[in-house]
Structure to design on (171 residues):
């Protein structure tokens, strides 16, 4: 058990209460008012064994699983202490899902880049083996993503296409 706390404007703030149990780890932050109101964010990171038990019941639990196979449950506790409202912290869940999606995109991008590099190496070797010189490389990304676009995202994609072409040209 570890935590830091402070009292301000008739509220007791817990900055990062951490507890460990046989079921997993709990992080809690937020505040309790002197008037009896609660406003807490709770993050429960289940053990691998507990996560596996839940995963056996539903594959949807994979959305809430970290890279170590442990489920993370994000909960909000708000309202009067006598009858608090307890629900999912959808903002935190969205942030975690966005992070997972970005990891998957980055992984797919690396795989695609490795595949493209392998193909470029194959073409280079074939040219060397046959004595055929490749005098130019075609860049077609600029047609779909013009460098003159007013949209910075479109220009960025066009620049990436140009970089790829320049990289392939030096092969």
């Amino acid at each position: 058990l570890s935590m830091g706390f402070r009292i301000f404007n008739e509220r007791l703030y817990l900055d990062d209460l951490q507890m460990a149990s046989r079921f997993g780890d709990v992080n809690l932050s937020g505040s309790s008012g002197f008037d009896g109101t609660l406003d807490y964010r709770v993050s429960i990171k289940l053990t691998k064994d507990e996560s596996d038990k839940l995963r056996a019941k539903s594959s949807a639990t994979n959305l809430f699983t970290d890279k170590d196979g442990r489920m993370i449950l994000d909960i909000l506790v708000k309202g009067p202490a006598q009858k608090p409202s307890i629900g999912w912290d959808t903002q935190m869940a969205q942030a975690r899902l966005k992070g997972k999606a970005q990891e998957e995109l980055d992984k797919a991008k690396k795989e695609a880049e490795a595949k493209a590099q392998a193909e470029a190496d194959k073409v280079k070797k074939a040219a060397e083996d046959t004595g055929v010189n490749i005098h130019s490389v075609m860049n077609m990304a600029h047609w779909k993503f013009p460098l003159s676009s007013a949209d910075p995202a479109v220009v960025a994609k066009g620049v990436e296409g140009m970089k790829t072409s320049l990289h392939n040209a030096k092969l």
About this structure: The first helix runs from residue 48 to 55.
